[in-house]
Each structure stands twice: as structure tokens, then as C-alpha cells.
Amino acid sequence: MIKLGVNIDHAASLRQARGTVYPDIVQAAAYAEEAGADGITVHLREDRRHIQERDVRALRKSIRTRLNLEMADNPDVLAVALEVVPDEVCMVPERRQELTTEGGLDVDAQRGHLAATVRALQAKGVVVSMFIDPDLNQVEASAAIGAEYIELHTGTYANADAEGRKAELERLANAAVRARDLGLKVNAGHGLDYANLAPILAIPGLDTLNIGHSIICRAVFCGLRDAVREMLRTIGRG
Ligand code: PXP
Q1: Is-catalytic flag, 190?
Q2: Among residues 112, 151, 172, 225, which is most buried (max CB within 10 A)?
Q3: CA of 221 to the centre of ligand 1 (A)
């Protein structure tokens, strides 16, 4: 059974767009859980463009599934993570000007620094994942620094034409197989929607899909619970 992590960053984007107190992020997480989400994901970005520290603290208290915090390898955000202690942390690259996370983390080039961050989080009992492109060097580097999970970046797949998608699916499957051989668990996410998801389900041994933007967009029309339920059906659940 593939699990669904619902990323609620863009509920916070709507709130931040007007500086209001609504929509309520804690309520968003509760609706996603009520509809069957296996976990809630938020990205505390350095520029705080959507999720705020107070959201992470409130979610830590309210959610009943698992809290997955996406973060860059940045000392200020690490301090928040070590204090709040999410169930999981997914290390991601971050550039201030980007619209969203573009490309995976270069774990291979930053082994020393990332290994120290992984150790600090694991010492608190946090499960750590590396958000990487489906590149075997990055898979091997993630295993070498002691991460328990990788999350495969599916953005290239999502943005490709039919031919490109075929090639990218093969890279994703090969990376997943290598990761599992090395004892890593495999998540995937980014750019996945109700229409492009089905072929991704064939990646061997997938643990969790983390999906945000498409679910929040669907929720604008049909409500968050129905949008999550429909995504669960799309991944073959419920
Ligand atoms: N996984 C990671 C590591 C991400 O950074 C994001 C975007 O915040 C997602 C999954 C979800 O991507 P999307 O919002 O395109 O579904």
C-alpha cells in the first residue's frame, strides 16, 4: 500500500497572500487526516513565504498522523526542527528566487555538512530523508551519510513530454531499486497531479507520495476532504 503525505504549504500561501488568519492551517491538516492522509507535510522555507514557525509548532501539537518537515540545511531552520521534533525531516535544496523546489539536493557534494545535520536530527528520533533527483550517485551518497529515506524528485517527469516521461520513469525506477538494495526506503513527490500520477505507481517499492499543489488547487472547488479522497483513489486506495 502506497501512503499519501499531503503537503499543505499552499493553504498557507493563500493566507500569506493577504495577511489574514484564514485559512486555518491546523484545520487544513485535520481535514486531510480525516479524509485518510497518512501524514502532513510542510516546508518551512528560509523566506517564510508560506508556512511560519508558529504553524509548525501548532501542527506538532494537533496532528494525529505524522508530521514531515521539509527544510534546507540551514542552521536557523535546523534549530526549529530540533526544538519541534517532527516525525520526519526531508532535506531539500532552496533558492530564494525559485517558485518551488527546483531539482534535487546535491548530497554527494555536501556529504560532510549533511551528515552532521542527519546525525543531529536522528539523535532526537527524527527520521531523515534526502530529496534527490533519480541519480545513482545521489542515492549512494544518501545511504553513505546515514539517511533512512530518499524522496525521488518527480518534477522532471511531471514537466516532460510523453517520450521524456518514459525515460524519466526508467531513471526513477532504477534509482528506487538501487536505493532499496542499499537499505533505503523510497518516497517520491513534486509536480504530481490527478492526471499524471498513474505511471508513477509502478516505481518499485514506493513507501509514500508527497503531494501538495494539485490537491490544494482541487480543494478550491470541491473542498480539501474530497480532494484528498480523490487523490487516495488515484493511488489505488479507498
Ligand atoms: N516533496 C518535496 C520535497 C517538495 O519540496 C514538494 C514541494 O514543496 C513536494 C513534495 C510537493 O510538490 P507539489 O506541491 O508539486 O505536489
Answers
A1: yes
A2: 151
A3: 21
